[in-house]
Structures are given as structure tokens and as C-alpha cells.
Amino acid sequence: MSGFLHDDQIAVLRKQGFVVARQFADASQVAALRALAERHLQEHVAPIEYEADLRYPGAPESRTAQGGLTVRRLLNAYARDPLFAQWATDPRIGQWLARYFGEPAVLSTVHHNCVMTKHPAYGSLTGWHQDIRYWSFSDTDLVSCWLALVPESPDNGGLSFIPGSHTAAYAPEQFDDKKFFRDDAPQNADWIARAVSPRLEAGDVVFFHCRTLHAAPGNRSDRVKLSLVHTYHPASCHPIAGTRSASQPGVPLAGV
């Protein structure tokens, strides 16, 4: 992709808080990543977060309940396998983000950094939220890169985004005690009505801002949905000492 196309995409990200980069990863790379993810999923390669751990709507009550070992995320993707690490630090991602940040990007190994799954049974829905809600950095200009390893749509739990929500100021009462954007609050209705649900093909990437409100329904298909997601911050931005965000070192990316 040319720099001009990067700049067009970056302008969209700045305006609406997310942008889809079609076929950002080539078919052979996606096939290799998907096969690796499927193997780790089948073999329950640790570390793993199970749906029962979070107990979002639709999840099993516990790991011992029916469906209790339904995987939500294969954690710590960067350290799982060199193939995952290669994607997370791909020069194309580094170049794209360097143009966005105006400086080199750094991969967070604490936040996201996972294979995100969505199972047809016991795959929970995720309410409207901003990723920055539990993160602690010196700045709030962080961007996540979401790679679809299979097609994604609302039918199988694909992401929805609220355009422009990353630049808005919200009152505390617009969120619940777990910092989810309340869908029962009248002042939130106009925002939620703006939501869009981009359909993704395998190899498509979504770059989205950490303040962009997003959500995902359950998976009504008969196949597991798999995605790779990583979060990046500019080199001049630092995790705040003593917080979870600073619990593991970041990985600088090339790409200026």
C-alpha cells in the first residue's frame, strides 16, 4: 500500500475513531496464523482466559459448569510463538502507526496481545465500552490493530463501532459500575443509534482508537470466530509506573 493510501486511512481513523484496511495481511500469512491459533485453541495452550472467568452475558457460570472450558482469549500472543510475534511487529503495522503517531510505535504486551475467539455456544456478548477504561498511560492516544483470521459479521460476533465516540466527553453516569456504556441510559441512545458493524474478510484489519466505543454480540453461526488483536502507543507515551499497564515491557516497532 502506498503512503497516500495510508494517509487516507489515517484521516478516517482520526475522524471516526476506526478504519478498515482491506486485505492488509496476505492469504498465506493469514492461513498460517489461523492454523496456529486453531492448534493452540484445540490443545488449550496456556495462558488462556475462559468465558467463565469474565461471566459476561451468555457465558457459563463457572469453569465446572456446562461449557465452562469455552475459551475467550488465548493470552500473551507475542510470546506464544514466533509467528504471532512476527505479525505483532510486522513492518507494515509499524509504518502505518508511525505515520499516525508521527513517531515510532511501541507494542503493549499487557493489553490485548491475544487471539480473540468467539464460540457459537457459550461465546458471550460484550457491551459497549472504551478500551482505555482500565489502562494507565501518560497519554490516551493508543491504537489497536484487529486482524480478522476468518470472515466477521454481526452474525458471528463481529465488532460494532460508534463513529466519533473517541473524541466525545461523557458524564460518569453514562457508564455502569464496570465502566460499560449504558444501553439503558436515555442520553446514550443517540450515540448507540449511530453504530456501524463493518463486515470483514480474512486478512482485513481494523485500526481503532482506545477511546472508540465498541461492542460485539454473540456468535450465531456454527463456527468459531478467530481474530488477532494488539495495542500500540507512541514511543513518547509511557505506561504509568506501578500500574498493570507497566507490568511488562513494551516492544518498539520499526517503521519510520
TrEMBL record:
Its cofactor is Fe(2+). InterPro entries: Phytyl_CoA_dOase-like (IPR008775). The keyword Transferase does not apply. Pfam families: PhyH (PF05721). This is Ectoine dioxygenase. GO terms for molecular function: dioxygenase activity. Gene3D superfamilies: q2cbj1_9rhob like domain (2.60.120.620). Transmembrane segments: none annotated. Its EC number is 1.14.11.55. Keywords: Dioxygenase, Oxidoreductase.
